[in-house]
Amino acid sequence: MNDAIFAGLDREVFDKHNDYAYQDQFDKGLNEQLIRSISKDKEEPEWMLEFRLKALQEFRELKFPKWGPDLQDLDLEQITYFAKADANKNAKSWDEVPDDIKETFEKLGIPEAERKVLAGVGAQYESEVVYHKLKEEWEGQGVIFEDCDIAIKKYPELFKKHFMKCVPVRDHKFAALHAAVWSGGTFLYVPKGVKLTEPLQAYFRMNAPGQGQFEHTLIIIEDEAEAHYIEGCSAPKYGENALHAGCVEIFVGKNAKMRYSSVENWSKDTYNLNTKRAVVAENSTMEWVGGNMGSGVTMLYPCTILKGRGAHADHLGIAFANEGQLQDTGAKVICAADDTSCNVVMKSLSKAGGISVYRGLLKVMPNCKNVACRVECDALILDEISRSDTIPDMQILSDDVSIAHEARAGKINEDDLFYLMSKGIEEETAMAMIVNGFIDPIVRELPMEYAVEMNRLIELEMEGSVG
Questions:
Q1: Report for 77-91, 155-169, 221-235, 421-435: range of highest mean pLDDT
Q2: For 363, which of 100, 163, 304, 399 is 20 to 30 Å away at the CA?
Q3: pLDDT given at position 16
Q4: Are 240 and 269 in contact (CB under 8 A)?
Q5: Does residue 285 surpass a pLDDT of 90?
Q6: How far is CA 373 from CA 252, 255, 341, 440, in A?
Q7: 80-89, 212-221, 453-462 — which is least confidently predicted?
Q8: Is 72 exposed, middle or buried (0-12, 13-18, 19+ CB in 10 A)?
Q9: Phi-psi category of 111—alpha, beta or left, where left has phi over 0 and alpha has psi -120 to 50?
Q10: Does 96 score more than 90 pLDDT?
Q11: Residue 9 confidence (pLDDT) above 80
């Protein structure tokens, strides 16, 4: 993967779709028969079917959230919760993937990324993983990188021990929905002492209209181990609501380090109601680096629970709200031990009437000592009709703490813009340069290849900013 791949990246790459006649085989709506059908199709153990059915009941009992974005236009009976294209499931060779699906992923940089910079890569299309592969050198060290549908059968005890333990089924309505209909995703296990020097990636693609995608990401990093995992997501625009309600669960052992990076670029049709959470043990670090754009409505607040003494969390994120978009994003950190610390830096951009919201939680549990946390949220508003809100929630239940919170909102500096234009730079290009400088502290934390992609996506969003 290199600059040349993304130089030609445009909106058509994401909005172009393949034939979706296969979707006619799958019904819309949610019921017990569908749950049983999913479990049977995947040949799951009996405990998982029971788990799904109980989650369905919990989903029916739980209410829609009464805070945040309005979800009244999301008709859950018009969503297709499970669909699969005519593809060989979980191919180990790229040649085995059907040509139309292969072409889609190649345009998005898969498997170019695998050849260049990755220790392993997975690709999910609709409800099923179509390709998954890990380099042999890491397999030899005991690393497991599998589709969750495979992992539940190959590693049943390890999977069951951790599945939906970080994010309980009753956490909220869409967590329960996910638990009932989840499909595909990634299972990553890194044994004690193994330090992955190359990142792993999974890419999730919705192709058909009215589709739901519910991939489950389960990551277990043992003591003294390290890993970096990257997720990318996209979907074409149809003018028909789609739903993404994935779930990410991360368990970080003692003296370990985990970085999770994501670039989510769903279409404006999509409600992105994703849940991500990590539990971090003693003297370990959890890093989140994310970019959110594209989806019509986003509710996403990665959460870190600092459970062990000396645990640390970094949350770095960008959200871009363009016309007709509401990006409600942020971070949650819970300090539950002595000597814990965190650094939260969130950047948002609003354009053409888009609304960006930072919604964050910082909680320090009673009697925790020597806790140090810093939260910074900056908003750049690109015109007169857009909006940015900051909604921080700080629950500090201990006295032995050092807490800092900064929030800034502003517009493009006219002096900076004039200076660049005086050097012969066109206004739209000058604005893009200022925006790139604003988001640089986050983008620079991505691997170079993904930083290039993020910058190109921001450029696409900035097109037409002048006039």
A1: 155-169
A2: 163
A3: 67
A4: yes
A5: yes
A6: 20, 20, 5, 22
A7: 453-462
A8: exposed
A9: alpha
A10: no
A11: no
Tokens (6 digits) for 25: 């085989």
Q: How confident is the model at residue 377 (pLDDT cuts 50, 70, 90)?
A: very high
Amino acid at 162: H
Buried b vs exposed e over 151-189: b needs ≥16 C-beta within 10 Å? bbeebeebbeebbbebbebebbbbbbbbbbbbbbbbbbb
Q: Could you read off the pLDDT of 19-67 as tens digits, one per residue?
A: 667 777 788 999 999 999 999 999 999 999 999 999 999 999 999 998 9
Cβ-based neighbours of 78, under 8 Å, separated by 6 or more: 28, 29, 210, 240, 241
Q: What is the C-alpha to C-alpha distance for residues 317 and 334, in angstroms, rounded to an integer? A: 18
Residue 404 in tokens: 């800092």
SS (H, E, C) the chain: CCHHHHHCCCHHHHHCCCCCHHHHHCCCCCCHHHHHHHHHHCCCCHHHHHHHHHHHHHHHHCCCCCCCCCCCCCCHHHCECCCCCCCCCCECCHHHCCHHHHHHHHHCCCCHHHHHCCCEEEEEECCEEEEEEECHHHHCCCCEEECHHHHHHHCHHHHHHHCCCCCCHHHCHHHHHHHHHCCCEEEEEECCCCECCCCEEEEEECCCCCEEECCEEEEEECCCCEEEEEEEEECCCCCCCEEECCEEEEEECCCCEEEEEEEEECCCCEEECCEEEEEECCCCEEEEEEEEECCCEEEECCEEEECCCCCEEEEEEEEEECCCCEEEECCEEEECCCCCEEEEEEEEEECCCCEEEEEEEEEECCCCCCEEEEEEEEEEECCCCCEEEEEEEEEECCCCEEEEEEEEEEECCHHHHHHHHHCCCCHHHHHHHHHHHHHHHHHCCCCHHHHHHHHHHHHHHHCCCCC
Domain coordinates of the chain in residue numbers?
3-300, 414-467
pTM of the model: 0.92
pLDDT digits (tens, 9 = 90+) for 329-367: 999 999 999 999 999 999 999 999 999 999 999 999 999
Distance CA 206, CA 243 (A): 10
For residue 175, pLDDT beyond 90? yes
Higher pLDDT residue, 233 or 274?
274
- Predicted confidence (pLDDT) per residue in 251-260, tens digit: 999 999 999 9
